[in-house]
Amino acid sequence: MDLNAKPYDLGQPYFPGMPHYPTHPPFLYSLTKRHGDMVHALGATSAADAIALGTHVGTHIDALSHFSCNGVCYGGRKVEQTYEHGMAELGVDSIAPIVRRGVLLDIAGVAGVDVLPADFEITPDHLDRAATVEIEEGDIVLLRTGWARLFSDARQYINNTIGPGPGIEGARWLSSRKIFAAGADTVAFEKSPNPAMPVHVHLLVESGIHIIEVLNLEQLARDRVYEFLFVAAPMNIRGATGAPLRPLAFANPGPVRRKPLSSPPGSILKE
Amino acid sequence: MDLNAKPYDLGQPYFPGMPHYPTHPPFLYSLTKRHGDMVHALGATSAADAIALGTHVGTHIDALSHFSCNGVCYGGRKVEQTYEHGMAELGVDSIAPIVRRGVLLDIAGVAGVDVLPADFEITPDHLDRAATVEIEEGDIVLLRTGWARLFSDARQYINNTIGPGPGIEGARWLSSRKIFAAGADTVAFEKSPNPAMPVHVHLLVESGIHIIEVLNLEQLARDRVYEFLFVAAPMNIRGATGAPLRPLAFANPGPVRRKPLSSPPGSILKE
Amino acid sequence: MDLNAKPYDLGQPYFPGMPHYPTHPPFLYSLTKRHGDMVHALGATSAADAIALGTHVGTHIDALSHFSCNGVCYGGRKVEQTYEHGMAELGVDSIAPIVRRGVLLDIAGVAGVDVLPADFEITPDHLDRAATVEIEEGDIVLLRTGWARLFSDARQYINNTIGPGPGIEGARWLSSRKIFAAGADTVAFEKSPNPAMPVHVHLLVESGIHIIEVLNLEQLARDRVYEFLFVAAPMNIRGATGAPLRPLAFANPGPVRRKPLSSPPGSILKE
Amino acid sequence: MDLNAKPYDLGQPYFPGMPHYPTHPPFLYSLTKRHGDMVHALGATSAADAIALGTHVGTHIDALSHFSCNGVCYGGRKVEQTYEHGMAELGVDSIAPIVRRGVLLDIAGVAGVDVLPADFEITPDHLDRAATVEIEEGDIVLLRTGWARLFSDARQYINNTIGPGPGIEGARWLSSRKIFAAGADTVAFEKSPNPAMPVHVHLLVESGIHIIEVLNLEQLARDRVYEFLFVAAPMNIRGATGAPLRPLAFANPGPVRRKPLSSPPGSILKE
Question: C111: distance to nearest CA of chain D, Å?
């Protein structure tokens, strides 16, 4: 391991006015103590801040409990929930820190554009063409649409919730490979809008595959890094359906031993 | 790199009632949408949550702008601040993802106790005795007091802000080694209470060394892992004086090349 | 004025899981300091709490700046807004404490039901039949649908945003009477869903008439109090588009002198 | 009742950077949806905001459960509390909307200054001299220090928590009159600092008298309105130890009938 190998930062920054899906509570920030408000002995002062946000705002991971169908989540677990403590099972605190092989599928690159149009559906054919390496069980598969470039303008990035993403066939292509998580650089991993949210249902509820959203994949694509070590530690919020995380990608991490799923996908909680 | 090498999780969980220093806004959580509140087509439902917290609550890193002395922060940077956007310089967003050599100094272990008493000052002598490997420039140095064991009871963990930590001599021992960051498993990296906060001032303002607090170092100590690869990506909040992070420690990461500070400590922002 | 005359409380309570319109940040609550966490001299302890919420959550008033049309708000004021400070004009801080004649129109009562069905549109005919007293310029006009009875169950109350309310004709009936504000006991003063939000646009943008939502009008209706003194002081949030308020209704306040609008409706800011 | 009689607004505004006692979570604000982020049919757009704050921030009332002594609150009620739901008894939701006789004691005026010095203790002698009318059972008694003039500068207003207020003798002067609530224009109704908080303990725990803080009494004093109708409706937060409120004072409300406490002070919850 070469400590001088700077990782790629796949997270987006947090700031007032940053994009958020309309139904999720936005990011609030305030400096809550200014330097000088209180003066410690010897002239020292400190400043501090506070934030508030939805757990699906900014770069984040969806816990499997984020979606359910007819009252059950992945693996047939019945929904048990309270406002005060969230989900009794499959919360984001059940996701261990993630250290896995990551694979980039540069869909925008394959399509020959910087940014996919809003109505672009990612199909199995696009996925086949963008996959430069074989996808293996347990991998993290990231689809680049180029929308990270729009992130600084909330209006463009949210775009009335219209945006590119996989449809159900694309989702099936991913789930058949028994991956650990799928992600993209958009606010919803879904050809949007689709009120039925079929990709979320198929991945989270039917397949036990996590979803990572609002990534920044621009630098990876620019450097043509299609295979990497993916390291991410979600904020460990008890019972939550999602959490911020700031994933890192290490190119050329040296010889990497495969990490198959030790059991059916999604069941490997607290791995 | 062996993907099967599970990293140590050095972060504490977030939950209602978790400990917080009295002057920092505590952690709030609520499930904001329950499964079933809205039903998507085909019977799918989703749930989501929101959180609010101070940036120095839970496992977190102090940006250099957290403290100032007589109106200036580290490197002579003048304090420029607004409530709405925080600090113009030395914010937590200026800290690149951290991939560095980590070193554990098990002070409680050296003292022969599970948990250091609240009035215990960590001195250079304790540090000398606990350092099983040589500390190098650019390292992350973590001091174990054993207080992570008290974390589940906010009253004990905060303890009227009385707790063990280094005094100014301990801080000088650390800064003389030109490390990147110092951390511990307590709420304040400081023999507390000390209203002058000399350790914070010496490390953050005078030495440009970050502070990481509220760590969980129990498992590392139990396994006698005193040297490791330390990987952490602070939540990237623009202008903030601190941020949550969930550090990982990889034992035996293979041959590790030294990573000296490329410039005087603290100045290597956006490295 | 008889101090023993207990006012009617027209506000709903705040609690975790209380109803909120999906696009508005929900209510968060936590006790942030427990009795006993810190002990003052002589055995005294204190407890404290924190909350977070959208400004259009719970019983609240819409500032005129809540809606705009083609870039302009009421009175032709151009939208000027920042994330950090909200609206430069027509913010909720421009609404003086409200002390006006209030009038209840019990639409559910006229319709002969406890709770209006979700698809019920309130028409001028309903308004005519429910108005037991003449409505005058500057009045507060409150329409009862009975939905306050559903408030304790967020799912029923929000009901996929389908609910009873006036259509555009009902809104015109109200605006022609030059009232100060219109209100109801539902989450949206609008026959919902209607993505064009014509009632909000007509009242707020075209007519300068405020909207008050999520009221509790049950007790007033039960006691057949159709005319009252309406007193309410919105939370004075600088630049906000809305604010919580807890209106009081005083029945039989003694002789009440008319309070006409001193100028075209809506322009009487900072009255 | 003359609707043209404009009430006095005794509340302070909310804005980023507003003063807050260091141990209470500060006020956060953000416009969370801008006009134009989403466009409704026909060109309409809406904007909305969110806030977060401690319940003892800004103009607020202390519930009797805010303080306890040796595990019991007023009336011998044992402390029962959870992080998620606050206090089981004596929460702010047990305070009915307040409609009572208010009395202003202009201590700064009596002292011949605009603003009382930070170390000024309000004594029974000051109270005697400032009371221009007789105080009666059930009244709201407001003490003016002039500190409302400092409110726009958080540093001055908080002043390292040093500020004027009554000592224990002043508190006893008030409690002997069996009033409903005492208030002032400072952040703490207490000669501060006094770590034992004797005035809070005496009023809240021993006497069942509420405390109202961060008032603005400047206009009342300027107009020499020493007796008035006091109307205030605290934000109705279930289980909370305090809540924002924006009190109104009506001068010359006409003949006012006395409103004695129907039972020992403080026990008249849900009156």
Answer: 31
Residues contacting residue C138 through CB under 8 Å, at least 6 positions apart: C100, C101, C178, C179, C180, C258, C259, C260, C261
Residue D222 backbone phi and psi in degrees, to 5 = -60, -40
What are the tens digits of pLDDT across the range B105-117? 999 999 999 999 9
- B82, amino acid identity: T
Q: Which of A183, A247, A95, D88 is nearest to A87 (CA)?
A: A95
Question: What residues contact A29, with CB distance under 8 A and at least 6 apart?
Answer: A14, A15, A16, A49, A50, A51, B84, B85, B86, B237, B238, B239, B240, D28, D30
Answer yes or no: do B28 and C30 touch at CB < 8 A: yes
The residues, any chain, with a CB within 8 Å of residue B213's CB and separated by 6 or more, are B56, B59, B60, B62, B183, B184, B186, B187, B188, B189
What is the reported pTM? 0.88
Strands C86-87 and C248-250 turn out to be: unpaired
- Hey, which bits of A77-128 come out as E strands? 81-82, 86-87, 98-105, 121-122
Specify whether the CB–CB gap between A80 and A87 falls below 8 A: yes
Contacts of C48 in chain D (CB under 8 A): 23-24, 54-56, 66, 241-242
In this structure, the number of other CB atoms found within 10 A of the CB of residue A124 comes to 16
Position D59 pLDDT exceeds 80: yes
CB B140 within 8 A of CB B184: no
Strand (E) or helix (H) holding D228: strand D227-232
Distance in Å, alpha carbon of A4 to nearest chain B alpha carbon: 6
Question: Cα–Cα–Cα angle for C191, C193, C194, nearest 5°?
Answer: 80
Chain B contact set for D17 (CB, 8 A):
83
Q: Can you point out the beta strands (E) in C78-217?
A: 81-82, 86-87, 98-106, 121-122, 140-144, 165-166, 181-184, 210-213
Residues forming beta bridges with residue D63, ordered by sequence position: none
pLDDT recorded at residue A256: 52
Residue ranges in chain A whose pLDDT is less than 50: 257-258, 260-271
Nearest CA-CA partner of B245 in B256, B236, B253: B236
Supply C96's token pair. Answer: 């003086």
How far apart CA D203 and CA D207 sit, in angstroms, is: 5
| Nearest residue of D to residue C44, measured between CA atoms | D69
Tell me whether residues D14 and C79 touch, CB distance under 8 A. Answer: no
DSSP calls for A220-247 = HHHTT--EEEEEE----BTT-SEEE---
Pick from A8, A21, A35 the residue to mutate for testing the B interface (most B CBs within 10 Å): A35
Confidence band of C165 (pLDDT split at 50, 70, 90): very high
CA distance B23 to chain C (A): 11
Residue of chain A whose alpha carbon sits nearest to that of B47: A66
- Are residues A52 and C16, on separate chains, in Cβ contact within 8 Å? no
Indicate the pLDDT class of residue C1, thresholds 50, 70 and 90. low
Q: What is the pLDDT of residue A254?
A: 61
User: Measured between alpha carbons, how far is residue D98 from residues C5, D14, D229, D234, D252 in Å?
Assistant: 11, 22, 10, 8, 18
Query: Of all residues in chain B, what percent carry a pLDDT higher than 70?
Result: 91
Q: For position D271, what pLDDT does the model report?
A: 34
For the segment B232-251, what is each residue's pLDDT rounded down to a tens digit? 999 999 999 999 999 999 99
- In which band, very low, low, confident or very high, does the pLDDT at C177 lie, cut at 50, 70 and 90? very high
Q: Which residues contact B21 (CB under 8 A, 6 or more apart)?
A: B56, B57, B158, B161, B187, B188
Q: Do A23 and C23 touch (CB under 8 A)?
A: yes
What is the C-alpha separation between A180 and A261, in angstroms, rounded? 8
| C-alpha–C-alpha distance, residues A100 and A94, integer Å | 17
Cβ contact, residue pair D67, C44, below 8 Å: yes
Tokens of D180: 């409903």
User: Do A178 and A138 contact (CB within 8 A), yes or no?
Assistant: yes
